[in-house]
Amino acid sequence: MLSETILWIHVLCGALWVAVSLSFVLAAAATADGEREAFAARVAPKLNRLNLVAIALLPLTGVANLVYVGRGHHFRYPPAFAGVLSVKLVLLCGMAVALGVAWSAATDRARGARRLLWLYGAMAAMGAVALMLGLWLAGSA
Description:
- Helices cover 87% and strands 0% of the residues.
- The two termini are 18 Å apart.
- Helix 1 packs antiparallel against helix 4 (112-140).
- It has 141 residues and is mainly α.
């Protein structure tokens, strides 16, 4: 029961990050050019805090999931497991860097909105790939 709860927290944190990032991209893209900077300055700090919670929980729940899966398989993973897991870690690091840059871009009213569109788009794309890889891991373990 605990392993399933941790797995769901992990998946929900990843899905939250993708949904938050994609929502910003869609809303900002639909906002008029003159209002986009004000929108970004008002909304991005709140979304960054949500993504910060996700990035704090993702590695913790990921390691816990790895332990639970390992115990169930006597710590013998399929050959491609480590490669896919490595890609997921690289994506998480990329998302963390993008979040850090987004944090500073949220205060730059001159260029912040355009930069935030790209950063949130990148976070959504990386997160979506990580979620798909997670599905592959769940099916292979």
